[in-house]
Amino acid sequence: MRKPLMRIPYTDILPSPTIIPASAHSLQGALAALHNFFAAPPPNQLPHSTVVLTGAGLSVASGLADYRGPNGTYRVNKTYRPIYYNEFVQNHEARKRYWARSFLGWSSLLKAKPNSGHYAIRDLGELGLISAVITQNVDSFHPRAHPRIPSLELHGYLRSTKCTTCHTEYSREEFQHHLARLNPRWAALLEEALASGALDTEDPDEKKFRGLKVNPDGDVDLPDAPYTTFRYPPCPRCLTDPPIKTEGYRHTVRADSDGAWLLPSSAGVLKPNVVMFGENIPTHVRTAAEDAIDNAGRLLVLGTSLATYSAWRLAKRAKERGMPIAIVNMGGVRGEDQFFIDVDPNQAGELAVRVEVSTDDLLPTLVSQLRQRLASGSLPNDAPFPNDPRENSSVFKDMLS
Ligand SMILES: [Zn+2]
């Protein structure tokens, strides 16, 4: 297979963070700093609402691997690399391999659930503290855990497939049934793996022992698998009515007698509805994410090293707007010094927070403390928290389908 020229950003270990404020080394100190972060009015008459930016670290407690954490995919599996968009679109063999691995990984992803970190975000929203969530995660946990807070899925979502020609969206769950029908031997292998508990175990060593590893993209590594026999269906719409290519010529879309996509088809390829490496984020998603930053007064970054440029530039945008930034992440964050370089060393969290605590430990306790303080009035009454976190939802009208 052709080796892509693109480099996966920041798979090396990032430098350890400087904890801000210095008192936030302990859990209690981190909680106090975040309390100050939410309680103080943002500077320069910025709005009182907070926008949250999340990454794979938030889903680790749901049993999914992250990319760059201590047990992250890039660290544990040195040869791992995600599929590239051009490879997927241009190469039938690459698609077979992708869908075979995705077929095996899907049931684990389907069973995984949002964790206490996601539900704490829901609760922060109900307290009126959060206006929107921007996530890099494709696991759909945010919209599931807090349907009333707008979730902007920067890199798409695995719950759908999308036709690369006509852009029709289909259910990934239904697609799974088609894959099982077209690949009975793989379906048997999957059933066996499920029955043995190899895909169920939460223990990474156990998974490794059984030769399986579920990656954050919802796929599974299976060394030496005969990927080339795997079959996948075409877009039903393009198969029935092949789209026009140019000047009246129609695309060719063919399927075998069982309904599997066949060469020389030139269209009707279904893709997971996620933004792959080398693929651009759709303009309306990018704009909505920028609007979410621009409509908020603070940025809370959870479980991400911001290694992906699309996420990093949103944090940079928040910084340029003078928004206080709090980062909760295990391990370093790309260029984080820039976010905190001009912060008053005597501030106690109201302008900047950097802590290294796992989100599922920190966030539920933060919620219960903030609840108590709101009830006792120790969060300032003159801080007009937005009454309804959905106020800004028109920004996300394209995203909430
Ligand atoms: Zn189509």
From TrEMBL:
Q: Which superkingdom is the protein from?
A: Eukaryota
Is Membrane among the key words of this record?
Answer: no
List of catalytic residues: H155
**Where in the numbering of this chain does the Deacetylase sirtuin-type domain appear?**
24-373
- Region entry Disordered, spans: 377-401
Any keyword Metal-binding? Answer: yes
UniProt keywords, alphabetically: Metal-binding, NAD, Transferase, Zinc
One molecular function GO term is:
metal ion binding
Q: Which InterPro entries match?
A: DHS-like_NAD/FAD-binding_dom (IPR029035), NAD-dep_sirtuin_deacylases (IPR050134), Sirtuin (IPR003000), Sirtuin_cat_small_dom_sf (IPR026591), Ssirtuin_cat_dom (IPR026590)
Residues where Zn(2+) binds: C163, C166, C235, C238
Family, as annotated: Belongs to the sirtuin family. Class I subfamily.
Name of the protein in question: Deacetylase sirtuin-type domain-containing protein
From which organism does this entry originate?
A: Hypocrea virens (strain Gv29-8 / FGSC 10586)
